[in-house]
Specification:
mainly alpha; disordered C terminus; two-stranded antiparallel sheet; single chain
Length: 456
């Protein structure tokens, strides 16, 4: 308020002085008036034309201001400045921001001091997190980063829960549970040991291959943000045999990458991925479901809730083979046991005691058996289809789109290769955010209020 009053007083004095000067000029025939504002008052009025926020430093522009500054310096125990020299305050010697004032009595408009080291703003060091906890795609990690899966949300029921994958587990565990509870003990007591033990071994193989397919890295090529955040460009170049960032032709932000792919790479089938902003090998492709580029991409399988690619195709084909063998070993024996005389007598007794209460249950079992039989037939068709692909050295995508295998690389017997990223690498989460686009919204689900938000 005091500052505003001083400015208004100066404006009034300037107006009066200006009017007196004009009258003197008219009276004296154009001569200059001697009652105009002084240099100090004009400098004070100059604040009205300057921006509200600026960096200033203390200096003495007039004798009265210098005396006030000298008095303040003497009270603070600082050396007395010379007349006309700048007053240096250690607290604001380096960087001072805000609208300054030479009037040290006006505390409201005094400059704000920066940090102790002279910086106007101290940038705090951001906490780094493991890469698996901030992975920039739809893939999800579990068990502290040791397990990863597709992470898709099916039918909006629960987050990160694939309904087709649950159906596969149900079709495997339901008949096998009946087999191991009823048939296995009966055969073991009858002295038939080979068949139950073989069935158990195939069951363990089928579930193991299914787990490996669902929870393993299919051959993901990390996107540009991940490579730059982990500083793994050289290791990735050594593993792939080429630089996916193409630093010699494409800028660090990846702009204009599709037009700047080297001819020696594009002629051999290397393509630019506009989502990951990297150059990918010929048989690699971007999965729209997982939002990752995958080496030797075959297809995205909702029944395993993961992509099928170079690093887990072996597990996928082993799962299809073992589950088909398991169905051949379990279902015929289970149907034979359910149609046996002893089982029919036991069922008739239960239905008689419960007055037909269990009839819907058995009808439901029959319906489930029919569905499992259809699933077995489809598994057989799928197995023969992949045998054909392996024999012709093609993937599912190459067969469906009539794409030639430029690399002449086998589909099953080729090298699996190492993982191309370290899920435990410590990265800054802000480095994984693209500046030119917003992250996609999370898919809605019916139980979002019950499960809560991942960001909370």
């Amino acid at each position: 308020c005091g500052r505003a009053g001083d400015v208004r007083a100066l404006i009034g004095r300037a107006d009066v002085a200006g009017g007196s000067g004009e009258r003197a000029t008219m009276r004296d025939g154009g001569g200059g008036g001697s009652n105009g504002p002084s240099d100090f008052e004009m400098e004070e009025l100059g604040w009205l034309k300057e921006p509200e926020e600026q960096e200033v430093s203390f200096k003495s522009a007039a004798a009265n201001v210098g005396s006030v500054a000298a008095a303040a310096a003497k009270a603070a125990g600082l050396p007395m400045p010379e007349r006309g020299s700048a007053v240096a305050d250690p607290a604001v010697s380096s960087t001072v921001f805000g609208k300054g004032s030479e009037d040290l009595q006006d505390l409201e408009l005094q400059p704000l001091a920066g940090g102790q080291e002279g910086s106007a703003r101290e940038v705090s060091t951001r906490t780094k997190k493991p890469l698996y906890s901030v992975w920039p795609s739809r893939s999800r990690f579990f068990c502290a980063g040791f397990v990863m899966t597709g992470g898709e949300t099916e039918m909006g029921i629960t987050p990160n829960c694939s309904v087709p994958n649950l159906c596969v587990w149900t079709c495997i565990l339901a008949p096998c549970t009946l087999y191991f509870l009823w048939v296995f003990p009966h055969l073991w007591k009858a002295g038939s040991y080979a068949m139950p033990l073989a069935t158990l071994a195939v069951f363990l193989m089928a579930t193991g291959f299914l787990l490996a397919t669902c929870c393993s890295d299919p051959g993901i090529i990390p996107r540009r943000e991940v490579i730059l955040a982990t500083r793994s460009g050289e290791q990735l170049e050594a593993a792939l045999g080429f630089d996916p960032l193409v630093k010699s032709c494409i800028p660090a932000d990846g702009k204009g990458g599709a037009r700047n792919v080297p001819i020696d790479l594009s002629s051999r089938g290397y393509r630019w991925c506009r989502t990951c902003r990297i150059v990918r090998p010929p048989r690699a492709s971007h999965c729209p479901d997982c939002d990752n580029c995958v080496l030797r991409y075959d297809h995205h399988c909702p029944f395993v809730n993961n992509c099928v690619g170079q690093r887990n195709y072996h597990f996928f084909f082993g799962f299809v083979t073992s589950v088909l063998c398991l169905a051949i070993m379990v279902l015929p024996v289970l149907f034979w046991f359910l149609n046996s005389d002893n089982f029919e007598l036991a069922v008739d007794g239960l239905m008689h005691v419960s007055s037909g209460f269990l009839q819907p249950v058995f009808y439901g079992l029959i319906a489930c058996g029919a569905l499992i039989g259809i699933a077995v037939l489809l598994s057989a068709v799928l197995w023969f289809y992949h045998v054909f692909l392996i024999a012709t050295k093609r993937t599912t995508k190459e067969f469906r789109r009539s794409i030639d295998n430029i690399a002449e690389e086998p589909t099953l017997c080729a090298a699996r290769g190492p993982r191309l990223f370290d899920p435990f690498a410590m990265v800054d989460p802000w480095e994984l955010i693209r500046q030119d686009e917003a992250p996609p919204p999370a898919p809605p689900n019916l139980c979002q209020q019950c499960w809560g938000d991942d960001d909370d």
